[in-house]
Amino acid sequence: METYAPLVSLAVLFVTAYLMSKAYLSSDAATPLIERLAGFTGHRPEQILLGYLGLVASFSMILPNVVAAMAFVPLLPRFIQRFAFDDERALKRMTTAYALATIWGANIGGMGAVIGGVSNMILIGYARTYGVPDADRVNFLTWFGFGIPISVTLVLVCWIVMRVMLRADFAATRMADTYSATPVGQGSLGAARAPGHAITPIHAKVYWSTMAFMAFWTVQALFDTWAMKQDTLFVRLMPTMASVAFGAAYCWFILGPKTSLGRPLVTWSEALALPWRGLLVIAISSAASLLLIGVFNVGHYAGALARSAHAADIPDIFILFGLMTMVAIATEFLNNVVVALAFFPIIHEVSATLGFHPLALLISASLMSTAPFVLPTGAPSNALVIGETRGFQFGMAIRVGFVMAVLTACILTLFGMYVIPRVLGL
Description:
By secondary structure, the chain is an all-alpha fold.
């Protein structure tokens, strides 16, 4: 029973995060934040893109990255409607740019928190199941210590890369003269919006639920760290029991009481509504990934190359960068969860050879698998956004995404060697 307690808490964490995302979609509570963000960052296309990247990444820190991507896909047309374009090419490329910003913001933000990606949850399960030293030091709170700096760094790098590589397209884009600050709403609680996107009581209710979510899971992480050191089984199980109680109360708050519009924040039909086209792409990519991993045994060859490089006295930083690059390549063509499962045992074994703490390298590998930058097969968030974006330009995505993948491998190599061990006290 005690063995599965942390997994129960993680399951409750993901369920409550999913319902929170549905509340944002139903009430359109993200729109007032977007309008205020535009006022803060400026109204030039490249300025709005930086704010948009940061906003998606911020949401992905408190929601699973696939859920954050799901929440922002309906908002993409609103951003494109803000602009006027000199030609059709600029329109398509800026549409692709914002689709990429949604994907990359969700995946990068997913690195910032343990709930940001499924591979993070799998990492914790793997570390505790296979006895990785100091696995109990990773929780909802401690993850922020290295996750937020990584996310902030990558958001800025992502924006700089897009700003440089798409400078001609930004130059051909300007604010539309006829843009209305009050676009037609899509949320089922859209009638609750006030002119100018003022924050309504329904929006406030969603924001309060977000603060309650963040406060509870922060305290729960601290409570769990203390409880695991106690001798009494009941005390060690108290964090899990508290999680289940909070989950029940949170579900009731979102699905139960009626708002001023005579319906709950999220109806059961909305909670159970899933993006089937995106999920179909996810299912196909996962099945293909499992097949290819089994046929080509990618993880085995990666481990063999790392051991051979170490025997040849190649510096460890280059070996670790090579491993991160292999994870990056694999996660572009294979489902990121499958890649994580394939590489975790190899990274665990190779870490002893390289002389690094296995937990730090496992975290780096998990984060790298969370951020495929080009293809829909890499992550559920990729599949959802690409599947729902008309006119997505793969050629442009491949060029910009390749640069981002290389830079991300470099950054995660340095964090895995120098930052994560210090943050966790390894």
